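Sat 14:20. Reprocessing the chain from the morning session after the first attempt stalled halfway. Input below, unchanged.
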Amino acid sequence: MNQRHPRTMRRLVGALTIGALVLAACGGDDEDDASDDAPAEETSDDDAEATDSTEAADEPAEDAGGESTRIFMAPKFTGLAYFEVARVGGEDAAEDYPIEFEYIGSDKPEATEQIATLTNAIPQQPDALVVSAIDGDAVAPALRDARDEGIAVVTYDADAAVDARDLFVNQLSYELAAETMLEAALLNSPDGGQVAFISASPTAPNHTAHVNFMKEKIDNDERYASLSYIDEVQFAGDDATKSQEIALNLIQANPDLKVIISSSAVSAPAAQQAIVNAGLEGQVWATGFALPSSVRDFIESGSSVAFALWDPAELGYVATVAAHQLATGQITAEEGQVIDAGDAGTYTVGPDGEVLYDKPLMFTADNIGDFDF
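Finished this time. C-alpha cells:
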C-alpha cells in the first residue's frame, strides 16, 4: 500500500477506494493499482508526528538536499476549493525539497486569464511551471514559449497539447475515471436507468475524454448494460449556479432520468443540490467527482449514496516533485523514467509523457466522515 505523505495525511485522513468494486465488476482482474488504492489507516496528529521522526519511510526522497528550484503552480483559476487542496500538496513538496513554491493565477475561469498568467510568468524565469490547463489548445502557445525559455512544464489535472509540456500527471487514466463514475452511478441507482452528463466546457480535454469513455462503456460493456444516456452533453463552466440550472432543466425535460454525472468538482455537488431543492431525493441522483466536504451533507442525509475523487493534495505533491526532478535533470520526460516522490509513491513516465496517479477514492456513508478536505 502506498501511504500518503505524512503531512498531507494529517489533513486528509482515511480512504475507501473503489479497488474492490472495480475488481468485482471485472470478475477479479488483478491490477497492482487496485491494491495500492487500499485505505490509509486513520492517524492522530501525535501518532503522525511520531511517525515523522521515527520511520525512514516517511522521509522525503533522497534528493531533498540537492539543487534548489523555483516552481510556479498555475491552476485553471484560483479560489476553487479543489485547486486550493492541490496547492497544499505543492506547498508540502516545497517543505520536503529545496523548492521555492509560488501559486499564481486569476480568479476568473477564462482561458484568456490563464494565458495572461503564464505569459507574465515567463519573464520571471521560474525553473518549472505546474499547470492545470483550462483549455489545452488555447494555453499551448504560452507553454511552448516557456519551454523555449528553458522552463520545464508539467501539467496536472487537465492536460495541454502534448508538444506544449514535458509531463502530464494525470489523476486517473481517462478510462479508469469513466469506470469510477459509472460505478458511483450504479451505487446510487442499482437498477441503472438513464444518465445525463454535465461537463466544464467542450475544450476541457479530460472532461471530454471522460464522457466519451462513459458512453463507450455503456454501449459495449455488460457491466453497465443497465444504463442508457442522453447523448447531448451540457456545459456549465465549473459554475455552481449554472450547474444547478442545467440539472433542473435536465430533470424537467427527461422524466426517465435517474443519474446526472459530472467530472467537475463544482457541477457534481451542485447538481445534487438541485435535486434536493426540487424535492426529488431518492428518485434522481447526481454523482461524479467532488470534494468530500461538498457532498458530506448529501451522503449523511441519505439523499446521495456515493461520490468519487482522488487525493488532490497528493496529486499536487507528485506534480510539484516531478517538476522539481525534471528541472534539476534527475529525470527526463522519456518513457520509462521513474519519479520518486518518497512517501507519495513512485510513478513511471508513460507514452507522450503521461504519468498516471491512478488512486481513485469512493465516498460513501461508511467513510465520508473520515475526510477533512
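The longest strand covers residues 193-199.
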